[in-house]
Amino acid sequence: LKAFQEAGTDNAVKFANNLGMDLPSDIPESYSIGGFDDGVSSLKMAGAFSAFGNNGYYNEPHAVTSVEFNDGTKLDLTPDSKAAM
Questions:
Q1: What is the pLDDT of residue 65?
Q2: Cα–Cα distance for residue pair 9/83, rounded to 1 Å
Q3: What separation, in Å, do the N-terminal and C-terminal C-alpha atoms of the chain show?
Q4: What is the DSSP string of 34-72?
Q5: In 3-state terms, what secondary structure has residue 29?
Q6: pLDDT tens digits, one per residue of 16-48
Q7: What's the Cα-to-Cα distance from 32 to each of 14, 17, 57, 60, 76, rounded to whole Å?
Q8: pLDDT tens-place string over residues 59-77
Q9: What is the pTM of this model?
Q10: Is the dihedral of CA 9, 10, 16, 20 positive or negative?
Q11: Within its chain, how far is the Cα of 29 from the centroid?
């Protein structure tokens, strides 16, 4: 809560949206402690927190990174990383 207050709502929203949260611009302070009421799923939260362990890079949560077909061709489905912090 203190970090949210120090950073300000605009910076907090920008930071959260860089982590894949898709928040509106007018969020209340309760969001800083998990008081979401507009569909922020546990999957989005996991993706956001994963950036802390990925040196500040956000990766959209995914289960499949590649598919190999019978003919030997491969399809890379790994999402692009983006610097979030």
A1: 87
A2: 20
A3: 19
A4: T---S---HHHHHHHHHHHHTTTEE----S--EEE-TTS
A5: helix
A6: 899 888 888 888 898 888 777 666 777 888 888
A7: 13, 13, 20, 21, 36
A8: 888 888 899 999 999 999 9
A9: 0.64
A10: positive
A11: 19
Q: Which two tokens stand for residue 17?
A: 């949206």
User: Under a CB-based contact definition with an 8 Å cutoff, are residues 47 and 32 in contact?
Assistant: no
CA-to-CA distance for 47 and 19, rounded, in angstroms?
Answer: 7
Which residue type occupies 6? E
- Neighbouring CB atoms inside 10 A of 46's CB total 11
d(CA 18, CA 52) in angstroms, rounded, equals 13
**H helix or E strand, kind and range, residue 12:** helix 9-18
Euclidean distance between CA atoms 82 and 20, whole angstroms: 10
Q: Scan for tokens 């040196």, then name that residue.
A: 55
